[in-house]
Every structure is written in structure tokens, then in C-alpha cells.
Amino acid sequence: MRPDLPGAELTLWPQWLAIDDADRLLHGLHGEIPFTQHRLRLFGREVLAPRLSCWIGDPGTDYQYSGVRFAPHAWTPALLELRERVQETCDVSFNSVLANLYRDGDDAMGWHSDDEPELGSEPVIASVSLGVTRRFRLRARDDSRRSLDLELAHGSLLRMAGATQRNYRHALPRSKRVARARLNLTFRHIG
Ligand SMILES: O=C(O)CCC(=O)C(=O)O
Ligand SMILES: [Fe+2]
């Protein structure tokens, strides 16, 4: 499915994984990824991020966080296998993945673009969702009325490419009624 959004390049596979595979991955990864709650600097104050996360990647794919460099965690066997499948579908290679665990509907991610210089000018980002369905919103930088909401279900894959990050921000809003967890993996290529 190719959601139509001017200036963006999106492909969504709503049921990319079979339910059994998705269930197994959710439980396996939940147990083996060393998630932590990071601190964010927000308007000069330190606050705890409203989610747990973990950066995983090939050696050398360090990332900067609040001015500090962090080495990535190592791939697990399950993540390496998943990376293979994602690469095949998306037709690009990835050397890192950001794992986010939203424990319930109070956990969220604010408006941002994945536009760090290390990702290059038109990054391909592949987002695998496991667990409870959550709403993913995209909003044009230059016109907030141009927006799109996608429901990212258990086992779905969303590919963002082209000028998507340049033209749009995205967010995962809080969702009061959600009581279950969602695990999201965004595969990236760091240059
Ligand atoms: O959880 C999601 O679907 C989005 C995650 C995201 O935007 C990110 O990791 O940069
Ligand atoms: Fe993002």
C-alpha cells in the first residue's frame, strides 16, 4: 500500500509478518534487548523520555545523545534475521536500528524528523511494529494542515524514503485507552 502524501515516499505493508512470527519476535525481543529509559534535555531541563529505548548497530555506528557519544549495542540473532528480511523487502542495507518500547498509551514520541546528517540527505528508514496498534502521524513542515495518520499494527512494516524526512515530521502521540505495550524498530543506514 502506497499512502498518497505529496513530497513524501511511503510504503506500508500492514501485515508484513505472519501473526505467529510477530508474536514470537515481540516476546523474544522484549526479553533480549537491553532497553533503558534515557534522559532528554527539554527547554534546559532534564526529563525522562516517555518510553524505553536501545540503539543497536554494527561497530562504528556510534550515535550522539545530549552531546555524548555512545557505542551501539550488539545485534541479537533474532534482530540479525529480521534485518535480513527488512533489507530484502526494502531493497537497501541497514547497519543500525533504534528500538523503542512504549509500555502503554502514556508512552509516546514527540514531533521530529529522522534527519541527522549521518543518515544522508534522503534516508530510507524501515519501521517494524510489534504489539498493540498505535497511531503514527506525519505532518508537513511547511503546512500543518497537510498530514496523514497511519495505524501501525502488529507485524506491519512502514518504509519512509525520498524527501519524507525533509518535508515531514512524524510523531507517536499518547493514547489514553491503550494499556498494552508496543515495540517499534526503525532500521537505518548511518554513513
Ligand atoms: O514508534 C514509532 O513508530 C516511531 C519511532 C520513530 O519515529 C523513531 O524511532 O525515530
Ligand atoms: Fe522517527
From TrEMBL:
<dbReference type="GO" id="GO:0016787">
    <property type="term" value="F:hydrolase activity"/>
</dbReference>
<dbReference type="InterPro" id="IPR005123">
    <property type="entry name" value="Oxoglu/Fe-dep_dioxygenase_dom"/>
</dbReference>
<keyword id="KW-0460">Magnesium</keyword>
<dbReference type="GO" id="GO:0051213">
    <property type="term" value="F:dioxygenase activity"/>
</dbReference>
<keyword id="KW-0479">Metal-binding</keyword>
<feature type="domain" description="Fe2OG dioxygenase">
    <location>
        <begin position="93"/>
        <end position="191"/>
    </location>
</feature>
<keyword id="KW-0408">Iron</keyword>
<dbReference type="InterPro" id="IPR027450">
    <property type="entry name" value="AlkB-like"/>
</dbReference>
<dbReference type="Pfam" id="PF13532">
    <property type="entry name" value="2OG-FeII_Oxy_2"/>
</dbReference>
<dbReference type="GO" id="GO:0006307">
    <property type="term" value="P:DNA alkylation repair"/>
</dbReference>
<keyword id="KW-0560">Oxidoreductase</keyword>
<dbReference type="GO" id="GO:0032451">
    <property type="term" value="F:demethylase activity"/>
</dbReference>
<keyword id="KW-0227">DNA damage</keyword>
<protein>
    <submittedName>
        <fullName>Alpha-ketoglutarate-dependent dioxygenase AlkB</fullName>
    </submittedName>
</protein>
<dbReference type="GO" id="GO:0140097">
    <property type="term" value="F:catalytic activity, acting on DNA"/>
</dbReference>
<keyword id="KW-0223">Dioxygenase</keyword>
<dbReference type="InterPro" id="IPR037151">
    <property type="entry name" value="AlkB-like_sf"/>
</dbReference>
<keyword id="KW-0234">DNA repair</keyword>
<dbReference type="GO" id="GO:0046872">
    <property type="term" value="F:metal ion binding"/>
</dbReference>
<dbReference type="InterPro" id="IPR032854">
    <property type="entry name" value="ALKBH3"/>
</dbReference>
<dbReference type="GO" id="GO:0016705">
    <property type="term" value="F:oxidoreductase activity, acting on paired donors, with incorporation or reduction of molecular oxygen"/>
</dbReference>
